[in-house]
Structures are given as C-alpha cells and as structure tokens.
Amino acid sequence: MSTRHNLVSEFYQDLIERGVMRPEMLCQAAVILFALLAAWLLESQLKRHAMAAHPERREHIGHAGFIRVFFPLTALMLTALGEFVLGNWFAQPLKLLTMAEILLMAMVNIRLFVFLLRRAFEGAPWVRSSERILSTVIWTIYALHVLGILPEIAQLLDGIQLHLGKGHVSVLNILQATTSVAATVLAALWLGREVEQRLMMSEVMDMNLRVMVIKVVRPLLIVLAILIALPLVGIDLTVLSVFGGALGVGLGFGLQKIASNYVSGFIILIDRSVKIGDVVQIDNRLGMITQMTSRYIVLKAGDGTEALIPNETLITSTVVNQSYNDRLIRIALPVQVAYGTDLAQAQALLQEAAKVEPRVVDTPAPAVFIKGFGENGIELELGVWIKDPENGQLPVRSSINMKIWQIFMAHAIEIPYPQREVRVTHAHPDPAKNPL
After folding, report:
1. Is the CA virtual torsion 120, 125, 126, 130 positive or negative?
2. Backbone dihedral region of 124: left (phi > 0), alpha (psi from -120 to 50 degrees) or beta?
3. What confidence category does residue 254 fall into, taking pLDDT thresholds of 50, 70 and 90?
4. What pLDDT score was predicted for residue 433?
5. How far apart are CA 253 and CA 35, in angstroms?
6. What is the pLDDT of residue 265?
C-alpha cells in the first residue's frame, strides 16, 4: 500500500510547526482572496452586459452555463497563476493554494455537469434531483482525494479483476469507462440539442432537411462520443465486435419493425412526401402533422386528439396530402332549390354568400354548378377554395350554410324538402258479385 498523502493533515501539521503569520502563508491567502474577488467582479460585469443585451432573459442569465462556470474557472486560473509566481519565490510547498485549486476544480466540474444535464434533458422532471446526487458524488470524490483516501480506493478496485474470455478487466476500468462514456455522451447530447435549436431557427433550410440533419447528427455524435471515451480508459474497440454481432442478430429477428420504421423515416424526409404542417389523410384519420420522429409521426386531428402513426405506414399505405404542392383545397357544398326558382339569381346569391366568408380565397373564385334535377328540387353545388386546411373544413361549411340560409330567406328562395302526395281511390262495387 502506498503512503497516504493527506493534504488536510499535512497542512494542519505545517501550521502547528511553523505558524500562520509567515510570508508564504500570508501570500497564499492574499492570492486566494484576490482570485475570488477578481472572479466575482468579472462575473458581475459579465452578467450586467448580458442582461443589458437580453433584458427579456434576466431570470435565465444567472443560470446560464458559461456565466455559472465563469466564476470558479476564473478563480482557478488566477489561483494557478499565483501559485506559479509564488513558486519561484518560496521553496516550501504551497499547500493552501493546492487545496484551494482542488475545491475550485470541484466547483467547476459540478457547475459544468449540471449545465450539460439541464441542457441535454431540458424539461425532464428528474433533472433537479439528479443535480443534488451529482454534486454529492463529485464533492465526495474530491474530498477523498484531499484526504488521500482516493488512491487507496482506486488501488483496491484495480485489484478486483473480472475475466472476460481471454482477457480481463478490473472494476476500476469499468468505473472509469462508465464515467468517461457518461461524460462524453452528456456532452454529445448537449451539442446535439444546440445544433437542433440552431437548425430549427434557420429560415434558409427546408423543414424536412432540418429534421433529417438533426436525426443524423444526434446518433453520430453519441457514437463518436463512445468511440472517443473508450480508448481514453484503455478499452480496445475490438471488444465491441461481439456487441455489434448481437445487435445485428437482434435487428434481423426481433427489431425488424423498428429498423423498418427508422429507415422509412429517412425515406420520407429525403423524398419530401410529407412534412411538418401538412394536412394529410391516412386510412380514416385526417389531421395535421405536428411532429416527425425516427419511428413515427404525430397526426393531430381537428378535435385535438393526436395519433402516432408508424413511418412504415406512410410508405406502404396511400396518403392523401392536402398540402403537397400547395395548401389550396376545394370544399363542395350541395344545395337544393325548388322548381320554378330563378337559377341565375340563385347562382349569384350563392356566390355572394361564399365571397363574404373570410377563409374563402378569391382565386380560384367560388363557382356554382347545376348537378341535376332531383325528385324534390334542382340540385346545385357551390364550390369554394380555402388555403388553410389545418383549421378544418366544418367551420367554413357551417358559416357558408348559415349565410346561404339567410340570403335565401331574404330573397324568398325556397329550399325544398321531400313531399309525397297520397291519393285514395274508392273502387265501385260489382253488382254481379254483390247482389245486395
């Protein structure tokens, strides 16, 4: 077992033997106070400029990642600089500055990881509780390091070997690999979220292209993070070949539908058959596409319900896209008028009722057609065009029908209803069959 280097006990022993009021101790305390004061002043100035530039985000600025990390990081750099300068003047170890740097480094790590956690999983309810656990773990690790216990724990864990085939790996290697992968994946998720936000705010790229780039960038960043993290802790990437083979077998047997939906999602994004905001009808479902994911699309109907439709369904089924080339759709409203009605007047009144509806476009103009002559009246059809199918057709139909009813009543035009005439005939008795 190696000799334990307890910085706290060594610093305490040094104070007892040599006292507090000596030049190197006073200089170390002055450097720490100067570093903290300078970092606080710079942080305050940075916050003031940020609030002046973005007054609508005053509450968020104090929790932003760079500003939160700025104070401990600046204090750490100034402390390290002071240690370098004082190291040329004093021959004794500067233990006070060393402990201050360890504490500031712990604060930097905590604030950095908390920021990445919030940004990568924004809105998740478990993030708040995880922040406390993460802070406790980091403070514990640094406390064990200061007390000199961490090297002993690391040596103990390194001695516990797990045999995997012809090779072996220690518990310490597993913990290091897990920590390294978790940190790099967290950074990859944060970077993916930043890329997503930048792309979704871009007005130059097509919406489908933005979604496709996001779907490609996120998995690539995660895979790249894992490939970077594992070699850093000495794990050979060839051990992943076994996992890759198992994953391939799983995709071939149990994950066919998932793989099919994932590939179908990319096909849909590439051929641009549907996009976010389109009004489509799939089977018996009509609604607007509000979200496109790797496995399904979200179709929001007019009544507020949302259907999750697998991407494979869009490839194998007929999709009626009401806004594929343009958003104009035609609505047909059947109307009957009584025989004897002036058809020219009725057509003009129907067009007038359609034109006063705000959602009806002027081009193509509303048109009235005579469909036929029915049993109860003359069948007409009013055709109108709207450019916002995502708002539904029923409100337009109801509004125009109400206007037709009012304008027909004002001009005494009759809307017929089924009528039947029943004639009862009495047969004359046959005198030959009924002698009475």
Report:
1. positive
2. beta
3. low
4. 57
5. 61
6. 79
Tell me, what's the pLDDT at 333? Answer: 92
- Tell the residue number behind the tokens 């109400």, with chain if given: 402
Q: How far apart are CA 117 and CA 128, in angstroms?
A: 9
Tokens of 269: 């994004």
CA distance 377 to 9: 105
Q: Quick count: other Cβ atoms within 10 Å of Cβ 58?
A: 12
pTM confidence score:
0.53
**Could you give the C-alpha distances from 209 to 137, 274, 292, in angstroms and in order?**
41, 12, 12
Strands (E), 16-155: none
Radius of gyration of the chain (CA): 38
Which DSSP helix (H) or strand (E) runs through 308?
strand 306-310
N-term to C-term CA, the chain: 138
pLDDT mean over 391-395 = 85
- Four-CA torsion 244, 245, 248, 252, nearest 10 degrees: -160
* pLDDT, position 318: 85
Q: What is the pLDDT of residue 428?
A: 57
Distance CA 151, CA 2 (A): 8
Q: Are 300 and 288 in contact (CB under 8 A)?
A: yes
Beta bridge partners of 329: 386
What is the β-pairing status of strands 367-373 and 378-386? antiparallel
Of the candidates 186, 68, 209, 82, the one whose C-alpha atom is nearest the C-alpha of residue 127 is 186
- Map out the domains of the chain with their CATH numbers: 7-159 (no CATH), 268-321 (2.30.30.60), 329-410 (3.30.70.100)
Give the tens place of pLDDT for each residue, 47-96: 777 666 655 554 444 445 567 788 888 888 988 888 888 877 776 777 78
C-alpha 251/C-alpha 140 separation (Å) is 42
pLDDT at 402: 94
Q: Phi first, then psi: what are they for 92, rounded to 5°?
A: -75, 150
Can you give the pLDDT at residue 25? 80
Higher pLDDT, 390 or 377: 377
Q: In the structure encoding, which two tokens stand for residue 4, read together?
A: 């334990």
Structure tokens at 309: 């439709």
Number of residues written out for the chain: 436
pLDDT tens digits for 157-170? 777 777 665 666 77
Instruction: Write out the DSSP string of 175-222.
Output: HHHHHHHHHHHHHHHHHHHHHHHHHHH-SSS-HHHHHHHHHHHHHHHH
